[in-house]
Amino acid sequence: MGLTSNQAGRCVFAGKTTISRSNNAGCKVIALAGNPNVGKSTVFNSLTGLKQHTGNWPGKTVSNAEGRYKHKDKTFIMVDLPGTYSLMANSMEEEAARDFLCFGKPDCVVIVTDSTCLERNLNLVLQIIEITGKVVVCVNLIDEAKRKKIKINCSVLSKCLGVPVIPTNARSGWGLMELMDAVYDVSGDVAAVAPVNISYDEVIENAIAMIQPKIYSLIGNKINSRWAALRLLDSDDTFIKVLENYLDFELSDNAQLLEAIKAAKEYLAKNDICPERLHDMIVSRLVQTAESISNAAVIYENKHYSRTDKRIDNVLTSRLFGIPIMLCFLAIIFWITIVGANLPSRLISDFLFAIEDKLTDISMSAGLPKWLYAVTVQGIYRTLAWVVSVMLPPMAIFFPLFTLLEDVGYLPRIAFNLDNFFKKACAHGKQALTMCMGFGCNAVGVIGCRIIDSPRERLIAILTNVFVPCNGRFPTLIAVSAIFIGGRFGGAFASFASTLALTAVVLFGILMTLLISYILSKTILKGLPSSFALELPPYRKPLIGRIIVRSVFDRILFVLGRAAIVAAPAGLVIWIMANITIAGTSLLAFAANFIDPFGKLLGMDGYILMAFILGLPANEIVIPIIIMSYMSAGSMLEIESLEDLRQLLISNGWTWLTGVCVMLFSLMHFPCGTTLWTIKKETRSAGWTLAAFAIPTAAGIILCTAVAGIARLLGLA
């Protein structure tokens, strides 16, 4: 796990530590560890700025971030470890953090803690101190502690822990220089550290003493032999596997070590300490030590400091108001996204198509062959322009709003409200968060599934994320609902009716997510829902600048880049289908006529199905392809108004039933190319990627066939 050889003074890959190239020999590797929601990434971002690199830990789908920071005469490689509550490896995040701390040989570990709930954070601090003494504790969010009248005596805390303790407010940058001074000293062996020694029950200590010398004789100072002995006693299988990989030999080959482990476990058993009780005793001692240290260093002047947060939570997470308020927030975000995206989408479209006019002039003056101009400009470039102009504005609005809810602290409350529903569906409560991400982009939602620890439940979340409509499907849903739902009422009620229809589609998508999750958990992905610790962080004032930066660089540009890569070849395919003819009939028309009977069965037609098929690279181009097909044009076109589009669709046989079926199939059909690509990278399986394609498509075909059949049977169409 860890840095690549051209990024740090050391690198770790698959549990093996190596020395990097000489041009980084003077760099110090600093690991940033901490619980979720303590401001660890804020510390990282404040120090490294834009000098960052992101990727995945080798062999895992857990993301990492690495950046450089120069302090005094040294360059530090900062490694932002995954947020975790423990190192006792119950998830990939915990494994990634533990493995880097054990085998990555960081020169110093900065443990970021939340000053408003220090006692809970000290559990992780004590676990890391057991691994390495080269630690600096960062007591972050000190401004929040002052606001809640919580006093932390950092000198006492430092004396209790035996390592430097620095108070900071990473959002404003206060205390970060002092933090790096301490890191400079500890990483350079300037500071004298004497980490607290966690002493366990006498029986456990005796068992450790039976194993520790054998381990030390094998590995020396490569890792902390006392901590390794404790993990072997605790039967931590994941640690044993990585340790063997790191040592490059099987522990089972060493008879003396195996005999020592066997004797130690028999000794524990004779003293009525079974494996489960041993684990509980280890955890209990850590908790008791954390509580003792907290009592010595923390003073709560206001015993009711969290009363306001609790009062808000009593409303936002209540059974009566929790779900309605959540839906209201979701509706407001949708409304702002939909309304706000219209003007910038038009401006971007005008700008990009003005560039197309310039490209046309350049092509004509350069004497390019017409076919080459048509392929590159009218095919590839025009498709890219469509994707960018339609995708960028909604994402630029939705993702900052979504990140705002995340920054304020509301997203964990959404997971809390929906946890019971997902539990009944035998899925994970965190799937609520990944589902919400899918509203902006299903590819981002799939990436977000990394937060789910269980591989089975993570896979369920990945396979069902497409059942919530992304921003690429909203243009189709909005246009069709406005024409065939709102248009049936007219007047002021038209917009309300179309909004109601759109909301109903979204709610139906959520219900389908739960239903398909349940079906998967009872069939090909059998299993019981796992429990998880869901922390409700305190409400905080959002930092607008950070929200914009995170949204732009972490989500918008990432998704837009993937979409552009997939959309470019799609433009070529669409142009070929529309312009190459067989006996006077284009390939597009030929294919549409071939599948038209199947399309009629689904309440649509062949051209609509071809639009969905050709729209695989990006859902945004479905409506333009339908327009192009009906107008028999050779490239994608746009209709100036909804009324013009309505007349075009009706003249080609559309009815209210066609509109309903198009909306349903738009909600439930195969993911776009960007999402499929992301699923392939996340699951590393072509089979599960195919399943992600087939499951929603089969659901859409069955539902549309049923709706169309019932409507015709009742004489409604």
Task: Give a written overview of the molecule.
It is a single chain. The protein starts with 9 loop residues before the first strand and ends with a helix. The strands form four sheets. It has a seven-stranded mixed beta sheet, sandwiched between helices. With 717 residues, the chain is of the alpha/beta class. The N terminus is likely disordered. Helix content is 62%, strand content 9%. It has 28 helices and 13 strands. It has three domains: 178 residues, Rossmann fold (3-Layer(aba) Sandwich), CATH 3.40.50.300; 72 residues, no CATH class; 391 residues, no CATH class.
List the helices and strands and how they pair.
Blueprint: E1 10-13, E2 16-19, E3 28-34, H1 40-48, E4 52-56, E5 63-71, E6 74-80, H2 92-103, E7 108-114, H3 118-131, E8 135-140, H4 142-147, E9 150-152, H5 154-161, E10 165-167, H6 176-187, H7 202-219, H8 225-233, H9 237-247, H10 255-270, H11 275-297, E11 298-300, H12 307-316, H13 322-366, H14 370-408, H15 411-424, H16 431-440, H17 442-448, H18 455-464, H19 474-484, H20 493-522, H21 544-579, E12 581-582, E13 585-586, H22 587-601, H23 606-614, H24 622-630, H25 642-651, H26 656-667, H27 673-683, H28 686-713
Parallel strand pairs: 3-6, 3-7, 7-8, 8-10
Antiparallel strand pairs: 1-2, 4-5, 5-6, 9-11, 12-13
Helix pairs in contact: 3-11, 5-11, 7-8, 7-10, 13-14, 14-21, 16-17, 17-27, 18-20, 18-28, 19-20, 19-25, 19-26, 22-23, 23-24, 26-28, 27-28
